[in-house]
Amino acid sequence: MKPVQCTLAAFALAILFGSMNACKPKNAGTAVTGNAAEKVYIPPGKYDEFYNFVSGGFSGQLSVYGLPSGRLLRVIPVFSLDPEKGWGFSEETKPMLNTSHGFVPWDDLHHVNMSQTNGEIDGRWVFVNGNNTPRLARVDLTTFRTAEILELPNSGGNHSSPFITENTEYVVAGTRFSVPPDNVNGDVPINTYKQNFKGNVTFVSVDKDNGNMEIAFQIETPGVNFDLSHAGKGPSHGWFFFSCYNTEGANTLLEVNASKNDKDFIMAVNWKKAEEYIKAGKGKKVPVKYVHNKFNEETHMATTETLREVTVLDSRELEGLCYFIPCPKSPHGCDVDPTGEYIVGSGKLAALIPVFSYTKMLKAIEDKAFEGEYGKIPVIKYEAALYGEVQKPGLGPLHTEFDGRGNAITSMFVSSELVKWNIKDLKVLDRVPTYYSTGHLMIPGGDSRKPDGKYVVAYNKITKDRYLPTGPELSQSAQLFDISGDKMQLILDYPTIGEPHYAQAVRAEKIKDNSRKIFKIEENRHPYVAKGEKETKVVREGNKVHVYMTAIRSHLTPDNIEGIRMGDEVYFHVTNLEQDWDVPHGFAIKGADNGELLIMPGETTTLKWTPDRTGIFPFYCTDFCSALHQEMTGYLRVSPAGSKVPLTFSTGTNLPAEDLPAGQ
Ligand code: RUQ
Ligand code: CUA
What residues line ligand 2, using a CB cutoff of 6 Å? Predict the structure, then answer.
């Protein structure tokens, strides 16, 4: 496709013909200029300045890049199976992917929000959302592993999530799809949307010490689609803002029927008020079913708990809880500036960006400057809450981040560009083309009270001609811009894993020294641990056989196992005895239909294996751990069901008869 200059007409055509990505900037081939290479070059052996946590979109994982180099450091499986780490393959991690619908090993991970203290990113946890089967996850930044996954009831898609308050009191989850609540009969005609479908936003509390999540309460709302959100901060701490579309209540052909209203809404929620209502017993206990999965670092095991009740507040009955602010044309991003005073709504189909004032909103509520109600919730007059509009910013504004110097940068999906504007006078200051169709953008700390306004990264949906072709699917990309001067300067362009949506970054110092190196073997409380080779054994319990195995450079104990029979279920519980940083061992056995294991120092991990034939089955370590890694192997013998071969196991002693000393 030839790049075309974007005009409003082209924009309209793009919408009409369903190709929202039809507009491409001119001179798409423009290369980086000047001293760009120098600005992103990290010499071998030196560290990056920032960790950048980037959503993997439909791949369900989270990836970690260094900035400014753009080097991929890690992929963290969350709502995904990962053969690199055995995530979702080991018996210990499988429960993490349980839901009330059963094992759901794949989801659509969009947004990343890091924990904050006093409005600053503190480097403790990253929260991410599962968009399809509604879930929230918390990743621990000492281990770079998913520590917890919480399912969300009364929701149908969890897009407006996970956004947090300035002291990580709450993580929120607004449902993308309104649906009949879980406790009513949902077997209703789809075209009764307006009567039967309800919206819902969930406030999940986070334990200050260990990060554990719990649903504090939900707020039932009229049936709109919640898109994105951000918490108030500073003076507006205590409020949450959610963008909503489909205020038309359409249930079919939304691209037309949910795009009719000139304005949709930003919903302002007074969550301090919600807390008061909860205290006063105004919440209704509602029967639901959802699961909560937690990984325990001492037992090295995940557990699933099924929960059956939530407390729901009714936004239509409880005064002062929710307000709607009209916002032009299907708002997407909903972003609050570092001072907490300005709320930016990005209407994807709007030709301007409205900026609302928190102070004016409060005044409007006090003066009852309402233009009416929507589903019994007061609608504040647009002008009464509006600070001003950014005129002609570009086409298809999606998301806004802040540089901490009084400026905002907004991503333009349709006109493929980043646009910098001043928050006070709402004047556009600079624009740069992106390649192409930018979704989210990210400034380190750019949604916090203290942005680190040195770089902005654009996360692009389409790369077309940017990289070597790779078949029908091309890579998505990230583009790094230096924003320390007046003009944004493109300095790096690199492909990403999966489809990046939101991302966050933080100075490396906030994380790197807390990085965990090993699990202490003496603290291992796995029920099948072997804390030394002396504790290794093979135990038969009916047709279940438990192998307590250890791994250390460069042998597995036991490495000869006989007496396994057809019909057995064999559990290899492998403990890595190493107590050194960066010395994992792996485990694989021929015919395992269940993948392999990767075991960190001091950890125990289990592979379940069911032999499907008799014979000899080699097993081995899959991680090249020493010069004698190729020797880190063993054999297992499978005999027919009912065989009399005794159960034996050993390492180093099962020698051929002719090698044995006389008399043995
Ligand atoms: S949404 S760009 Cu979830 Cu904007 Cu992705
Ligand atoms: Cu252990 Cu290779």
Answer: 551, 585, 621, 623-625, 629, 632
**664 falls in which pLDDT band (50, 70, 90)?**
low
**CB of 292 closer than 8 Å to CB of 307:** yes
Provide the 3-class DSSP secondary structure of residue 36. helix
How much distance in Å is there from the Cα of 84 to the middle of ligand 2? 15
Q: What's the pLDDT score for residue 5?
A: 42
What secondary structure letter does DSSP report for 82?
A: B
Which segments of 225-369 are extended strands (E)?
A: 225-231, 239-245, 263-270, 284-296, 301-314, 322-328, 331-336, 342-347, 352-357
Ligand nearest, relative to CA of residue 598: 2
3-state secondary structure of 275: helix
Residue minimizing CA distance to atom 1 of ligand 2: 585
392: alpha, beta or left? (left if phi > 0; alpha if psi -120 to 50):
left
pLDDT of 462 over the 80 cut: yes
pLDDT at 505 over 50: yes
Q: Which ligand is nearest to the CA of 459?
A: 1
- Edge-to-edge order in the sheet of strand 342-347: 331-336, 342-347, 352-357, 386-391
Q: Is the pTM of this model over 0.70?
A: yes
Structure tokens given for 469: 């072709």
**CA of residue 298 to ligand 2 center, whole Å:** 23
Torsion, Cα 206 49 584 108, to 10 degrees, reads 50
Q: Which residues line ligand 1 (CB under 6 A)?
A: 110-111, 159, 332, 398-399, 439-440, 501
